[in-house]
Amino acid sequence: MSEAAAIELRPMLIGGDWVESANGESIEVENPGRRSAIARVPRGAAEDVDRAVAAAAAALPGWRRLAARERGRMLLDIAAAIEERADELGRLIATETGNALRTQARPEAGLAADIFRYFGGLAGEIKGECLPLGENLLSYSRREPLGVVGAIIPWNAPVGLGAMKIAPALCTGNTLVLKAAEDAPLGVLMIAEICQRFLPPSVLNVLTGYGEEAGAALSRHPAVRKLSFTGSTEVGKLIMREASERLVPVSLELGGKSPSIVYPDVGCEDWVVDGIGMAMRFTRQSQSCTAGSRLFLHEDIFDAFLDRLVERTSSIRIGDPLDEATDMGAIINRTQFDKVCGYVEEGLGRSDARLVMGGLPPASGPLSEGYYAVPTVFADASNDWRMSREEIFGPVLVAIRWNDEAEVIRMANDTHYGLAAFVWSRDVTRALRAAHAVEAGWVQVNQGIGQILGQSYGGVKQSGIGRECSLEGMLDSFTARKSVTVNLGIPDAPAS
Length: 496
Ligand code: ADP
Description:
The protein has 496 residues and is an alpha/beta fold. The chain folds into two domains: 3-254 and 459-483, Aldehyde Dehydrogenase, Chain A, domain 1 (3-Layer(aba) Sandwich); 259-445, Aldehyde Dehydrogenase, Chain A, domain 2 (3-Layer(aba) Sandwich). Helices cover 39% and strands 20% of the residues. A seven-stranded mixed sheet has the order 14-15-16-13-12-17-18, sandwiched between helices. It has a six-stranded mixed sheet with strand order 9-8-7-10-11-19, sandwiched between helices. A three-stranded antiparallel sheet has the order 5-6-20. The protein is globular, with a radius of gyration of 24 Å. The structure holds adenosine-5'-diphosphate. The site of adenosine-5'-diphosphate has 17 residues, from helix 8 and helix 9.
């Protein structure tokens, strides 16, 4: 048997059945920590998309008619079932994404359960309003599902982001065709398998395949009534273009190049230095759209702060994602790894930036066996070179000096992105002034944590459109408001 044939094929879910792609082709999934193939998944394409959308459309009438609390109950059952298998799921996520089990992958499995629980609990809140339009008018609104939703997700937090599409879309009575990312489909397929135990067939369909094939076919499918996309700004624009052809609503959660603005009054205190590392998402290899990757340090603390950052960041343990001692795992794939190295190489070659820590990944030793990048910081960078402007999606931080508040806000906003921002100061007035002035969908003051359920999360500018993580986000993204107006003033029926 050839090696390729020995690698197990994990089928995708269409119409309640676990299937291969119509063309029989498959894609290999790699463990980026070892650069070895771990499974194959179907290479879904247009024909598979057609089948999945047809199945979702056929399931829609029955699903949307169910009382919302019934749907909510199923989501709660799914949450409990995910929790039971959280350890297995965490290991699978770590193996396919390279994200460290202890710091990232296991918490992501727990988050997926929380997401289903959160939206399951919200099912009773899908309600409309009664409008006081007049004594003889009964006017009320309903929140109705949009129909078949097409959702496309990336690989960086595949299970969390998959849950973030499935739970609100189904809770509100839509049916769903979800395309997993080609680099990390296995955890999503496991979530699909769990969901399938509780949901009627065809309500959830999960496709695997490449973006240009399965993703593009889904985004242009005429029966898809809503597109929900998380990924790069570049592909987000393609999705929006497709949506504009049919005027279907879109939610886009896209890239970022988020600023961290540090005022001098916080000095080099550990909580700030550690907060900057967390905001930068070093333990996710900085493969996060909210990574605070532009560090604006006040000149009074610039050098001392960086010294402390180097000290604290040097203790991050990089290595095998499945090792409990590992803080930071591997970059997702060869392409991303080469891209990150390209930015570092460029930085090393520039005279207007100084390498403070990190650099190119080791060329020998255990870390050279996977796509391991190391936390890297360049200081005295200008805000207008490539490394300060483009989303690297790797652990490369640029530190930029400032001394004037208006100027630092101008630099922070000098980007086409507007996803997250972080402000660090003990002076609340000053911190909030900056928080209000910065162009971002989400500003954190004095912390750099990840998204919280219940908070409407999303970007402005080219970081996205729409919000999905909250009750309002779910209602706005996955329902249409219908008004029903009844004339109560009609004359009595004529006597017969
Ligand atoms: P990333 O850089 O995080 O991989 P992408 O935006 O390239 O982000 O990918 C996110 C998701 O979008 C993946 O599921 C990918 O397969 C899909 N995708 C990529 N290209 C297209 C496309 N042209 N049409 C639809 N989906 C796409």
